[in-house]
Amino acid sequence: MWQSATVRTSLGFIALAIACAFFADFQISTQAPWQELGRLMLGLVMPDFLAVDFLGEALLRTLAFAFVGVGLGAFTGLLLALVFHSAWVRTGCAFVRAIHELFWALIFLQFFGLHPLTGVLAIAIPYAGIFAKVYAEILDETDPQPARVLPQGSGRVSGLAFTRLSQAWPHLVNYTSYRLECGLRSSAVLGFVGMPTLGYYLESAFAQGLYGSVGALLILFYVLIATLKLWVRPRLLPFYLLAAPFLLGSGLPIVWSNVSRFFTQDIVPTPLRNGEGISGLMTWLLDLMTTQALPGIWNTLLLTQIALVITGTLAMMLFPLISRHFTGRISGTLGHVALVVMRSTPEYLLAFILLQLWGPSMLPAVVALALHNGGIIAHLVGQRSNQLTLRQDAPRGLDRYAYEVAPRVYGPFLALLFYRWEIIMRETAILGILGIATLGFYVDSAIQEIRFDRALVLILITALLNIGVDILARRLRSRLRLRHTATSEP
Q: Coiled-coil region(s) at which residues (predicted)?
């Protein structure tokens, strides 16, 4: 039987999500939402590849930003992982990875403009923090015995290469491959803030009602993700990394005076720029907290909690789609395709589409977050279930699910769900850029009003909120003795 502490924790989260639902806005405000959804489905069934004359450029830019950003992030993350025992390094990495790529992009846009450096750094900086943490965890899991038998005089670099790195290499490669998939999603989404990737052209096609072009772009993106392991071969990776910087494009030139002004004037709080002193700063902060930060925090937490529970529910419902204990060869393949589509579609992209179909409310955000993260967790739990060996007289159907498989995968499932908690909150905050009143909404509004000092404070609050949730999730995993390691990522 499932552990009582685990059951109580799960029921507590469900009860909290139900309570949050009473305060959420799930209204559909468009006149013919299902008709528009039908047109979109028709575009997916009958994509118009010939109408998308910019397809090649969009694809190359998306790949280029992903390879350069992830490559730079992985290299920096590996260096940081070697000194991750330092409290300063751990804190710095936690901070940079708590800020979403789109927030970084919005910051860099203010002084770099639409330059390739904006997109590259927006991916590389948070990914460096993520890589540092995960690489450090993978290296810590290696067997220390080989390092003890090295001959005297072995250099530190050679010792590291032939002991910890050699053991951890397969796990490092697998995780980096998974992060490249994430990088492709991040690169595509950068198009929504003006970078010339798939998201930019997708937003333009959607605004014009060109659903055939929308379908062509989405199908191309799914094929790109699904075939990643086929064309990203180790021997070809150096070629991709060398070619990618030349495919980023030139963009607009950087005006370095804007960079200087941003750091010396724009982000300095207005009361300090005007010489109003500490009292003026406190009044300014109080107004910011009451009118923007607190409403944004409330809506972010509200939406996160609802999306988290729905994500978990979907994952537990869908993992049998790829479990050998419930499916055959054909049905398992179809289930795998369905989960690939779900986890390959970025939350931001899916929320954008649903907002066009249903209108502005929390419903598109909740559905987008649940589908994407539910697909990821269902995929991982399904893989975990395939490792189970059932007794010969095990029941079938619903009884097999309820009494044999679900209880044995529920602990790892809950660990994965808590691991995704902070990620869901990061995405919840950034969805505010689409018009949902989370913290991202107020960040975007402040940037549009050229109040960069306000935007920076709100971004810092977002980062601290994410760090707080990450700490809470780790403590819950520890208290419930739920084990989840970096190597369990897809």
A: none
| Contacts of residue 314, Cβ cutoff 8 Å, sequence gap at least 6 | 370, 371, 374, 375, 378
Find tokens 């969009």 and name the residue.
58
Nearest to 193 by CA among 67, 65, 94, 76: 65
Secondary structure element (H or E) that encloses residue 170, with its range: helix 166-189
Enter the DSSP assignment of 99: S
Q: How far apart are CA 279 and CA 159, in angstroms?
A: 57
Structural domains of the chain, with CATH: 1-31+271-490 (1.10.3720.10), 49-266 (1.10.3720.10)
Euclidean distance between CA atoms 489 and 178, whole angstroms? 8
Contact 342, 60 (CB under 8 A): no
Instruction: Measure the CA–CA gap between 314 and 326, rounded to whole angstroms.
Output: 16
Residue 176: CB atoms within 10 Å: 21
* Span 332-385, pLDDT tens digits: 889 988 998 888 888 888 888 888 888 888 899 999 999 999 999 999 999 889
Burial class from Cβ neighbours inside 10 Å (0-12, 13-18, 19+) for residue 45 reads exposed
Largest CA distance in the chain: 79
Name the phi and psi angles at 58, rounded to 5: -60, -40
CA 466 to chain centre: 13
Helix (H) or strand (E) holding 360, with range, is none
Euclidean distance between the first and the last CA atom of the chain, given in angstroms as a whole number: 28
Q: Measured on CA atoms in the order 364, 369, 374, 375, is the torsion positive or negative?
A: positive
- Phi, psi angles (nearest 5°) of residue 250: -95, -40
The per-residue pLDDT for range 182-235, each reduced to its tens digit, is 899 999 999 888 888 888 888 888 878 788 888 888 888 888 888 888 888 878
pTM for the model: 0.86
**Cα distance between residue 125 and residue 97, in whole Å:** 7
pLDDT tens for each residue of 285-323: 999 999 999 999 999 999 999 999 999 999 999 999 999
